[in-house]
Amino acid sequence: MMRSETLPDRLRKLRKRIQRPFNAKDGGLDDVAVRAAYARWAPIYDMVFRAPLYWGRRVGVKRVNEFSGTVLEAGVGTGMALPHYSKHLKVTGIDLSQEMLAKAERRVRGGKLDNVDGLLAMDAGNLAFPDNHFDVTIAMYVITVVPDPVKVMLELERVTRPGGHVILVNHFSAEKGLRAIVEQWLERYASRVGWNPVFPKARILGRTHLLLEEDQSVHPFGLFTMLTFRKPRA
Question: What total of structural domains would you count in the chain?
């Protein structure tokens, strides 16, 4: 009599099927894929993501509000975080998607957000700002949607003044378990959804001179993480 297949057996088989060499042509991210994905998302982005990303935005903005001076929000999207920055801050937002920026601009005008200095179409991996320009830079749910995350980290470091802070809020993938299997399966659809489900922290930690000061788990269910870095003064 043959033994019936158990759930662990089925999960092991699924893991073997999806742990194949990743072909960028199948699901990898590039600027074209990101622009196309977020052009599709723009009309419904707020409706779909307001609730799931609420806690991360809240924690990230609260952290930024503890500082003073100038702020860069890289990947500002539709500007959902903009109304929540303290008035003592001067905020600049950048995004690759013109469609998302158009919605952010309407939010700024409608909310009379005088502390928003500007919203610019720009690649987070090639920032058109001078060195040491901002007191704080923040990227929320961005680092997994860019083709070259290390390049983005280096740019955030470059435009942050010495002694300033770089803040990331993001999903980082699990190393094992059912969640890891699901994330690996979703990886093949990265170009369609516009983000990379398989993204361990190791891809960005230790790649710059930034010093990690805080690693905080964020709701819902600890699926997201806030990392706070400080740029050394020398």
Answer: 1
